[in-house]
Amino acid sequence: MSETFTWDNVEFDLSDPAFVSDPEAAKRWLEGPRDVCPGRFSDNAEVYVVTKYHQVRGLLADPRVSNHPPEGVHLDSMRKRGVPEELLKYFDSTIMTMEPDDHQRVRGLVTAAFSAKRVRSLRPRIEELTNSLLDRMDPAGVNDLVADYAHPISTTMICELLGVDDEYRDQWIKWTGVFTTFLRPDPKLLPPSLHGMIDTIKRLIDARRAEPGDDLISDLVRISDQTEKLDQVELVALALVLVQAGLDTVRHSIALSLYNLFTHPEQLELVKHNPGDTVRAVMELMRYAGPIKMALPRFATEPIELDGVTIPADGQIQLVVAAANNDPERFHEPRKLDVTRQDNPQLSFAHGAHFCPGASLATAETEIALNTLFARYPDVRLAVDPAEIGPRFLRAVERLPVHLK
């Protein structure tokens, strides 16, 4: 290890609430890749922070890097975040942190649910939903495109896909908001939120076991009951991850895409007038300022040298995807939003074995949400100063008040 590499003066510190809320953090960390540097995760774990595109992309697919933490590390982290002891098993069996063989086994069970064919079959439902949401808005008033549009699109689609009953849908947003914060969760809210999520998943599994439906949870229950490919703890953990990912990522993707188009009028006009190119625009919006700022922590399985720094075996690695997506060595004028950008291998959906299986569905939902809105209301615009609602580092846009006409 370099003699100058120490954790005495950590700049990238997710354990510091001020760092996460600092509006300048995005500018410092997302616009300028740098050499491997020391950082600290939200549980105070020491991490090696990697921001350069070629290094981030390489490590995402590097067999020397694992999502599976060393023995006890992940559980200790969950304990520090306040996860109750009796629920730890569900967070130690997720598809996000499994050993490679287990990950491949479980990932194969959900891939079909997000296949290109399945996503194509869902497009009419997404279009129907977006139009129905716009029908409910007040054309003469101020409407919130997060609460009234992005939120119900993401919630409805993932819950219908998995088979989550209507009665639970709004509650999921509240529960996941407590757990997915990068800051230490509220110790009074976290245990009841986690119990609520897991108890609800268990009830849904029991209901689908008794009366199967045409949904993903029913499919997973059948596989779990008829084969040895998925045990009961893994089944609960997988359903939990899929609901959380589907709710958060799509909601933030739609909201951030709209915000960045509203604040870049010339790009907004291009999207309005070229609906056939919106998928390309969505990829650029994800690159420029998508909801995924960092990959989940990785761990070196053997020593790895980067920028003259030796990451030791079991060293924790934090890949800052947003910085990699803005690396000038890979992207021409990276801080310029260009919805016509052709060469755009952005990493927001990861790369390699852990590439997001729901990427095509998330892209389709965002594409259709943009095209439907702009077709119905081509003059839609923000109703407030962008500075009032602008996202900060690791935070999405929580509200988007707009005039539709």
TrEMBL record:
* Record-stated family: Belongs to the cytochrome P450 family.
Whether Transferase counts among this entry's keywords is no
Entry protein name: 6-deoxyerythronolide B hydroxylase
**What EC number(s) does its UniProt record assign?**
1.14.15.35
A GO term, aspect molecular function: oxidoreductase activity
* PANTHER family found in the cross-reference section: CYTOCHROME P450 YJIB-RELATED, P450, PUTATIVE (EUROFUNG)-RELATED
> Do you know which InterPro entries this protein is assigned to?
Cyt_P450 (IPR001128), Cyt_P450_B (IPR002397), Cyt_P450_sf (IPR036396)
The family database entries (Pfam families) matched by this protein are listed as: p450
User: Is Oxidoreductase a UniProt keyword of this protein?
Assistant: yes
**What's the source species for this entry?**
Amycolatopsis magusensis
Keywords, ordered alphabetically:
Oxidoreductase
- Top-level EC class as recorded in UniProt: oxidoreductase
Query: Which residues fall in a coiled-coil region?
Result: none
